Structures are given as C-alpha cells and as structure tokens.
Amino acid sequence: MASRRSPAGRVALLPLAAAWALFGSAAAADVVLLEATRDNTLFEDAQGDTSSGSGPSLFAGRNSQGLARRALVSFDVRSALPHDARVDSVTLHLHLSSSSDPSPRAIRVHRVLSDWGEGASSSAGGSGAPAQDGDATWLHRFHPGTFWASPGGDFTNVPSASTTVAGEGDYAWRSPELTADVQAWLAAGAQHGWIIVGEETVPGTARRFDSREHPTPQQRPWLSLHYSMVTPARPHTWGGLKQRYR
Predict the structure, then answer these.
(1) What is the rounded CA–CA span in Å between residue 57 and residue 73?
(2) Is residue 1 part of a domain?
(3) Total domain count for the chain?
(4) pTM for the complete prediction?
(5) Which of 64, 77, 122, 154 is deepest in the core (most CB within 10 A)?
C-alpha cells in the first residue's frame, strides 16, 4: 500500500543519488511524479454508448448485475523524461474509495495496445453516462465511429502488474514488466497507458477508484518514475593514470 504523494501536478525532485566509475559510466538518478493525462471507464453494454471520461471515479470488476467495468489510465512520460533516459523503476498509485465486496481481490494492470479517448461524459456512479464525442466505451476507442478490435479494449493478455486490494485506501502496482512498459513508451513514442481489470469471474466485485478529475488532488492516479541518465566515461589507460597521479 502506498503513501499519498506530495504536491499535485508534475514534480521533479532533487537527485537521489550519483555514481562514478573510472572504467565504467557516470549515472545520475532522479525521481519524477506524474499525474494522469487521461482516464476513463469502459462500462459493459451491448450498444457501447456509456462512458465517464470526465467523471470523478474509475471502476474495475463486475457490478451486482454481472456487468464488467474496466478502467483506463495514461501518463505523458515522454514529456517528463529525456528521450535517452533509463527507466529504473515505476510505481502506479491509485486510491480505492469504495467497495461493497469485503473479500480481497486481485486488480491487474495490462498494457493497452490501441489509442483511446477521454470525452465530456461524467458519472460519479458505476452505471456511467451517455458517451460523448471522443469517449472510450466498451465498443469504441473513440465514440461514435472508431472501434476496439475486441469489445472491452485491446490489451495484452498477460498483466504487467497485479495487486490485491480490499477496503478503502491507497494501493500501488510495481513490477519489472511495468517498468518495461514505460521504457518502451519512452523509446517508441506510442503511449496508450494501462487498463485496470478487476475480478470478473463473479458479480459484485467492482471497486471504485478516484480519477484524475477527483476534487481531492492527493487521491488522483499518479505515477512515480525513478530514472537514470547514463553517459560513457572517457577511456583511461594505466599509463595515463600513473602519469596523472605521480
């Protein structure tokens, strides 16, 4: 479980560490905190006309009627990091604000494979609101005319990270695979974010997380990135070193 962050918005902190090796490389490590730039919920329905692109909440799992909810979240890592940075570790932070299911459940994070939108629809509840132009829905990447290849979103079968959640509070997802996702976005430029998938085998498991539009900044989704800048050291020879230190 993660602690809540300091100031809202994108923040670059002071360097955490620096290393120098005579025959290796120089590396300076930093940490950056990012707020989400897009988020939305996919509400399962046959028409694909429900969304909540501008709502204060995100949902994952199945509701009491057995309908799935999946949350989308994306961060602009390319604007925050140098293009040649080495991403050392990544942690995704979400605040769970409501759950009627007391059982601990695994919430998985998968890398999204296609671009998607966040429109003007807004719903605080788990039923969603009428989709607006550009919204992602269960059927659409961008409502009303651009569709997912598969209903419910296009994403990798294998999750990048998984965390067990229970009651209200702050939760964190971290793994080497999550770090690799961010490194790939930084290198390739395409960054479609993650989809948050809850327990979908039984009804009544839906969780409500706070979105980037939530009125409390400390409860919005955020991403902590630890990265290094690595540059080759100048070559040295034993003769040159002996001459320098005589």
Answers:
(1) 12
(2) no
(3) 1
(4) 0.84
(5) 77
